[in-house]
Amino acid sequence: MTSTASLPKSPPAPVGIRARPRSVTAAMCACVLVAQSLVAAMNLAIPKIAAGALHPSPAELLWIVDTYVLVFAGLLIPAGALGDRVGRKGVLLTGLGVFAAGALLSAPATTLPVLLAGRALSGAGAALLVPATMAVLLHTAPPDRRAGAVAAWSTAIGIGGLAGNAGGALILQFLPWQGLFWVYVPLGLGLLAWVAAAAPRVPRQTAALDLPGSALLVLGAAALLFGVIEGPGRGWSSAPVTGAFALALVVFALFVRHGRRAAHPVLDPRLFRLPRLLAGSLGIAVTFFGMFALFYVNAQFLQYVKAYSPLRTGCAIAPLALGMMAVTRYGLRWARRAGEARTAGTGLALVAAGLLLLATADAGTPYLCYLVFLLVMAAGAGLATPTLSQAVVASVPAHRSGMGSGLQGAARELGAALGIAVVGTVLSVRFASGTGHGAATAAAFTEATALGYRIAAGVVLVVGCAVVWGLRTGARAGRSGS
Question: Is 339 left (phi over 0), alpha (psi -120 to 50) or beta?
């Protein structure tokens, strides 16, 4: 069982800061919500980008979405170490500036390489800011409010994708896809000003930067995604695709070898001997695998199959945020009563159930029925996310809180990137065979979507069983150790 006492102990905040912990919490939650929302907002923009002047292929559409997520995921852990070493507030402010600069580069892009460069730059900014927000939050929150602050931060991460859908819908109803990035420029700069005024400076920690390990992590993730995304277009047995998968295996093996030998690795693989930390990381990854499989397909389904406008699509998705917020509010409380394993397991089972229910939807499915399917997933993510985040944060030493939040962030974003890549690949393979217009095209898209949802649900169920086993093993080890 978890408790507030299991949270990392941070040094007491200066007296002047303690008077405004809620303002700091709100600022940190706003930062992570905006960073996470850009992924979902791009999902909503896919129909307009596909029909625009860039004329991207299905694989290029996936890269437009996943480049941000890949850089975000690959740099999160080294960014956490950088914040520990040079100062969390400075890294947070830098990240917000880089995030806004990436949006500024993407907005006027007239070629795919420029758009991808802007997406990568925004992803790097998001990687800098997210682990720093957790470190600032834990430093500022009083001990009796720390669990609530972590739950609020986890909620902001979880509903970021939903907020991106709702806010992006409003923008894309009246503006071209470029307008999305123009809006994120002042958002990033506004958050920079708020954080500069509200957040305290957090004492630096002794953390070493592991540049070789960071490079191996990014390269391995990029190779894996390349194989998944490019497989349909190039052929699964083609030299580039099989070479990418082989390279991913070799690079990840080198990453583990480097981590075991380096004095200060970006991620010590021996940490994963802790069942609770390993289970929490896997659980976060698979939760966001399922949720972002939904986010990538859902907006397209509502526009292509149900013939919704972007604004109506955003409104149709918005109740997800309320459902997830309502359940997340009590997630940690249920975990204390029922145990981490049971709470996280129930949450993951609900995510899988929601995906399977969504696989039955078609053009004739009433919206209220469709909404129930979405709310099942929202309830599952609301139960699982704060419980699993707590398991990871509480498993690392307090002086490495930046690394801990970076680890769960990397798991979250890698899971999201794989969810987008897998369901997008299934969609491109099956939907490419659908021809015609109107009902015929909608039927082909519906069939492809259903298959993608079923595959995603299977992954969530299989990995979810391993997560529950790991949390139970960690709980037994904790009781025997005490």
Answer: left
- Maximum separation of any 2 CA atoms in the chain, in Å: 67
SS3 per residue for the chain = CCCHHHCCCCCCCCHHHHCCHHHHHHHHHHHHHHHHHHHHHHHHHHHHHHCCCCCCCHHHHHHHHHHHHHHHHHHHHHHHHHHHHHCHHHHHHHHHHHHHHHHHHHCCCCCHHHHHHHHHHHHHHHHHHHHHHHHHHHHHCCHHHHHHHHHHHHHHHHHHHHHHHHHHHHHHHHCCCHHHHHHHHHHHHHHHHHHHHHCCCCCCCCCCCCHHHHHHHHHHHHHHHHHHHHHHHHCCCCHHHHHHHHHHHHHHHHHHHHHHHCCCCCCCHHHHHCHHHHHHHHHHHHHHHHHHHHHHHHHHHHHHCCCCCHHHHHHHHCHHHHHHHHHHHHHHHHHHHHCHHHHHHHHHHHHHHHHHHHCCCCCCCCHHHHHHHHHHHHHHHHHHHHHHHHHHHCCCCHHHHHHHHHHHHHHHHHHHHHHHHHHHHHHHHHHCCCCCCCHHHHHHHHHHHHHHHHHHHHHHHHHHHHHHHHHHHHHHHHHHHC
Give 85's contacts (C-beta < 8 A, 6+ positions apart): 204, 205, 206, 207, 208, 209
Around 452, how many Cα atoms within 13 Å sit in the side-chain half-sphere?
32
Residues 300-359: pLDDT tens digits?
888 888 888 888 888 888 787 777 777 877 777 787 787 888 888 999 999 999 999 999
Distance between CA atoms of residues 7 and 127, nearest Å: 23
**Hey, what are 340's tokens?**
């981490």
Pairwise CA distance, residues 455 & 421, whole Å: 12
How far does Cα 412 stand from its chain's mean position? 4
249: pLDDT strictly greater than 90: yes
Residues 6+ apart with CB under 8 A from 237: none
Task: Mark 419-432 as b/e (b = at least 16 C-beta within 10 Å).
Answer: bbbbbbbbbbbbbe
Number of CB atoms found within 10 A of residue 143's CB: 12
**pLDDT score of 293 more than 50:** yes
Tell me the pTM: 0.77
Listed in sequence order, the residues at least 6 apart from 394 whose beta carbon sits closer than 8 Å to its beta carbon are 2, 6, 7, 8, 276
